[in-house]
Design brief:
5 strands, 2 helices, globular, single chain, about 80 residues, alpha+beta
Length: about 80
């Protein structure tokens, strides 16, 4: 489970066993978890984050999208 970014209380990571899904990132904070697709920065799943905090987290994903995508493709390789 490579951690690719930390911003404040948020840990951004992906699971090493998910290479067949579209590029995405998981975000955790104190028992809360969310998943965002990197191409669109859309929310894929939310487990506990309140809406106002999801907006904040999405802003971070958008701001670091290129870095997160590079980490994804650096780990899994380019799409075939």
């Amino acid at each position: 489970m490579p951690t690719v970014l930390r911003v404040g209380p948020y840990k951004f990571y992906f699971f090493s066993h998910e290479p067949n899904e579209p590029p995405h990132v998981h975000v955790d904070r104190e028992g809360l978890s969310a998943k965002f697709w990197l191409e669109t920065c859309d929310l894929a799943r939310n487990l506990g984050f309140p809406a106002h905090e999801l907006r904040r987290v999405r802003t971070i994903v958008v701001a670091h999208r290129e870095e997160l995508s590079e980490a994804w493709y650096g780990y899994f390789g380019t799409a075939s």
